[in-house]
């Protein structure tokens, strides 16, 4: 299985594709996905029901598995967007003529073979394949086992489209064997993978890092915070907190802990807790929050570390901005963090000192998403600093090499 899946010639074939070939292939994929939606949704529905019966995916993760019309249409539009966006491959920048006449520049190039390993979310299969195609990479995909049939179908459709437009279908592969052993074999040192993108829980990412000698970009959990500063517009703060929790509580960019400046306790704290309770969100609070709002239950240290991924939020009153930043840098996962403030100096201090992939001023953490950042489709939200940070866009699936053009120059300097 492994040698076949990781045939390096697929990487060379992907890297050779012209902009026009990629454009044609991506449009063909978008059209086929739209046409065959019924078949995809039916397969997915069966698998979903099976996972539900087996209890193999729990409530919060279960919904991610569903392929549903409006969201899938958005992903298809993302494939069309990729078809039309400028080809990142071959772009030359930073051209610097040297005193000896050498022309030194940097050319954007594909990485080679990418392995994408991710949760039971079939839409990732489509986005990841399309992004790899556009960036001239071969890709091997492995999603959560409950979605194997849907993922296989999606990859078959993609491969058929590639064949139809004359692109080698082997540049997109799916690991058919859903066992973990097959996954570890894929990631083992026997193969050569240029980048592993791992989306999922901390336990999963830790295991991938342990098993894989290849560079791993972690798209990990989001223990995200909103800090309501002393000068915040409190109506806006409430709207931001509610949006950050309620617009999609199961997603990694949802808020999990709200920090409120002590100037707002007890009055605003009790109002905010009441708003959250009205929206059926449970609040786990520090002693000051519980004193202000009796229907908050007492939080412990575990709460500050918890990604609830559901209708619960932790809340803590903090004496100042520095304590809020310290709390976030201690318990956060480097994903998305927000401050609500009318104080420009505090806004800037927060953005400089909070260590996260996306740091917002007066906006919801839910905006951390490729489409919302103008990057188009994304392969995950990197919670580490290298090689990509935040939403992993198509350009992040490339590297740059130096390209140097001379006229027979020889180096004479020591
Ligand atoms: N930053 C980002 O872009 C994203 C982050 N996330 C984060 O992922 C987490 C939840 O996702 P969830 O669906 O529960 O992800 P899981 O980590 O449970 O599942 C993801 C994949 O990991 C495998 N897996 C799970 N646990 C282990 C383990 N201990 N050892 C080896 N393999 C494992 C599963 O494979 P198998 O099928 O074999 O069980 C699955 O393919 C949340 O923290 C969420 O925030 C999710 C999506 C995007
Ligand atoms: N898809 C999300 C962002 C990232 C994501 O896919 O996260 P998750 O739902 O945790 O798998 C969004 O629409 O904001």
UniProtKB/TrEMBL annotation:
Its EC number is 1.2.1.41. It is an enzyme of class 1 (oxidoreductase). GO terms for biological process: L-proline biosynthetic process. Pfam families: Aldedh. It is found in: Cytoplasm. Pathway: Amino-acid biosynthesis; L-proline biosynthesis; L-glutamate 5-semialdehyde from L-glutamate: step 2/2. InterPro entries: Ald_DH/histidinol_DH, Ald_DH_C, Ald_DH_N, Aldehyde_DH_dom, cNMP-bd_dom, G-glutamylP_reductase_CS, Glu-5-SA_DH, GPR_dom. Its main location: cytoplasm. Keywords: Amino-acid biosynthesis, Cytoplasm, NADP, Oxidoreductase, Proline biosynthesis. GO terms for molecular function: glutamate-5-semialdehyde dehydrogenase activity; NADP binding. One of its GO terms (cellular component) is cytoplasm. Residues 37-76 form the Cyclic nucleotide-binding domain. It catalyses: L-glutamate 5-semialdehyde + phosphate + NADP(+) = L-glutamyl 5-phosphate + NADPH + H(+). PROSITE patterns: CNMP_BINDING_3, PROA. HAMAP family: ProA. Belongs to the gamma-glutamyl phosphate reductase family. Catalyzes the NADPH-dependent reduction of L-glutamate 5-phosphate into L-glutamate 5-semialdehyde and phosphate. The product spontaneously undergoes cyclization to form 1-pyrroline-5-carboxylate. This is Gamma-glutamyl phosphate reductase. It comes from Streptomyces aurantiacus JA 4570. The lineage of its organism: Bacteria, Bacillati, Actinomycetota, Actinomycetes, Kitasatosporales. The gene is proA.
